[in-house]
Amino acid sequence: MTADAQRRRTVIQILLLSAGFFVLVAISVASVLLVNKSREDNSWVVHSVEAENQISTVLLEVRRAESAVRAYLLSGGPQFLTEYQAAAANVLPGIDHLARLTGDNPAQVQNIAKLRKAAEQRLSEFARGAERVKNNDVSGAVAALRNGSSTGAVETIASVGRDMRNEEDRLFRDRTETADRTQKLASSVTIAGSGMVLALAFGSILLVRQSSRARDRAEIRLRDANLNLEATVDERTADLREANAEIQRFAYIVSHDLRSPLVNIMGFTSELEELNSDIFRRIGGLTQAASGGPPPAAGEIVLEGSDKQLADDFSEALGFIKSSIARMDRLISAILNLTREGRREFQPEQIETRDFVEGIVSSLAHQAAEAQAEIHIEPLPNIVSDRLALEQIFSNLIDNGIKYLKNGVPGEIRIRGRTKLGYAIFEISDNGRGIDPKDHQRIFDLFRRAGTQDKPGQGIGLAHVRALVRRLGGTMSVSSELNAGSTFTVTLPITWNASNRNSDQ
Amino acid sequence: MTLPVSIIMIEDDEGHARLIERNIRRSGVNNEIISFANGTDAINHLFGPDGTGLVQKGNALLILLDLNLPDMTGIDILKQIKENKYLKASPVVVLTTTDDSQEIKRCYELGCNVYITKPVNYENFANAIRQLGLFFSVIQVPPAAS
């Protein structure tokens, strides 16, 4: 998966989550608002019911007062008077209460004004009637009441009451409807919100599954890539090994085949040398004969003048040829030995390094004494490695130290060792003539040497040592200044693993 | 040398062949020396046109063999000689530049009788060949089996 697609997916995920969050907040806010609205609506409904109730109460009180007055008129019983008074006292406060309840509705306010007026008129008629009964004017009271009924106050009260009730009924219906609507709205908002949240959750789950699938795919690809990488590394290693083996074979064959013509050159040069004495003896004889001397006796020809010069030149040429052949033979043998070393199987074994190095040093004691060199061995870490290879490495380096000392300065060679991260690091340092930094690379090349060429050598030792160190899975380096001694550092694995380099062949 | 032993020299390098022959002669060996510069000719001569080796029946041979030949390795020839019922009794001297111990071991395992590395140093080379000549003059060579 590309980084771009991944980023897009992340952004979508964040958007989905925030959308879900906002929907939740919106639903919560809407629910709170709608619930409040619904409570309000319900309170209005209750209000309408209360108002209606109050209308009934007022009308009832008016009727009660009327009945009580009538009863009083008929029977004159004082308990009716008391009842009338109690009922009449409730009428006006009831209307007041009703006015407070319906004060927000102008139509009802008007109705109440009418009702109050009619009720007051009716109450005053009752009061008059009751007064007349108290004064024993029963017939007058009856007439007054009858009169009163005919004035229309009763009708007014009834019709106003009806109107008010109708109005409140209408309000009740409206408000109930509003409350219902609000509740419906609340529930639909909740349902819609829940649906959206569910949808968003579903989307999120899809996305999560998608990214987890993408991750699985990426993991598989990573594993494949790792496997590929390992295969590639193995392949390359095999290639390198093959190339190395090829080079070894090449070096072996070349050096080997070079030897054949060399045998001829050397052989026929020697034959020439044999012939040399015969030829010049004959030339000498001829010269002597030509100059009129006695015929030469065998074995006592003495060459003179230009003949002697010729013979000397001839011998000199042959001498150069032979010494060059000898040198070439040594070089070829060195290459052969190197390639043979490269083919040798290493046998790792536990080596008590300090005793081992002491053994090498004692075998070099004679040279050291001749060069007036002292060799100090410090404690060295033990390693598991090939004994023969290690012996060649140390003896070459120590031998070099002894060989290339400064003239007139007593030599001091020091062998130190330490371990670091699974590697043993050995340092062989001397106070000898040192190596110019520009030659540091060169000295490890085959047949290359550095500095004053006053010691015998082929330029093979360090090349050989480095090849061995590499085969042992280590590295080596030199730090040195001209006239300031040298330190050769050899880093070797503490435990040489037969599988890592032995299969070079 | 009383026996009419033929020395078969299989050596691709003419110079080597010449030097070897010269030094053998110097040691006083006068037997016939038949030299071949490649493996095919040598095989043809040794085993005859039918490839059975029957042509050599009754002949006493001493074979001087170089390992590095242009057309085949001396080891193949050695193997064929030692597997042939007429030739297997003939002594084979491997004389070559190779001084690889594996190679030497291999040759002896295949039945080579003597293995000599050609020294580059001519003194040693001449010496070795002369001694080989002396060796030739004293060893008894059986005729190829009948």
Give the structure's gist in a few sentences:
The complex is a heterodimer of chains A (505) and B (146). Chain A is an alpha+beta fold.
Give a structural overview.
- The complex is a heterodimer of chains A (505) and B (146).
- Chain A is of the alpha+beta class.
- Chain A has 3 domains: 3-210; 240-340; 346-504, 2-Layer Sandwich (Heat Shock Protein 90), CATH 3.30.565.
- Chain A contains 11 helices and 7 strands.
- In chain A, helix 3 runs antiparallel to helix 5 and helix 9 packs antiparallel against helix 10 (461-471).
- Chain A is rod-shaped and about 215 Å long.
- The two termini of chain A are 43 Å apart.
- By secondary structure, chain B is α/β, with parallel strands linked by helices.
- Helix content of chain B is 40%, strand content 16%.
- Chain B has a 5-stranded parallel sheet.
- In chain B, strand 1, helix 1 and strand 2 (33-36) form a beta-alpha-beta unit.
- In chain B, helix 1 (14-26) packs across helix 5.
- Chain B is globular, with a radius of gyration of 14 Å.
SSE diagram, text form:
The complex is a heterodimer of chains A (505) and B (146).
Chain A: H1 3-75, H2 78-101, H3 106-134, H4 138-151, H5 153-290, H6 305-343, E1 348-351, H7 353-363, H8 365-370, E2 373-377, E3 383-386, H9 387-403, E4 411-420, E5 423-430, H10 461-471, E6 475-480, E7 486-493, H11 498-501
Chain B: E1 6-10, H1 14-26, E2 33-36, H2 39-47, E3 61-65, H3 74-83, E4 92-96, H4 101-109, E5 114-117, H5 122-138
Parallel strand pairs in B: 1-2, 1-3, 3-4, 4-5
Helix pairs in contact in B: 1-5
User: Which term fits the overall shape of chain B?
Assistant: globular
Number of DSSP helical runs of chain A = 11
Low-confidence stretches of chain B: none
Task: Specify the overall morphology of chain A.
Answer: rod-shaped
Report the average pLDDT across residues of chain B.
Answer: 84
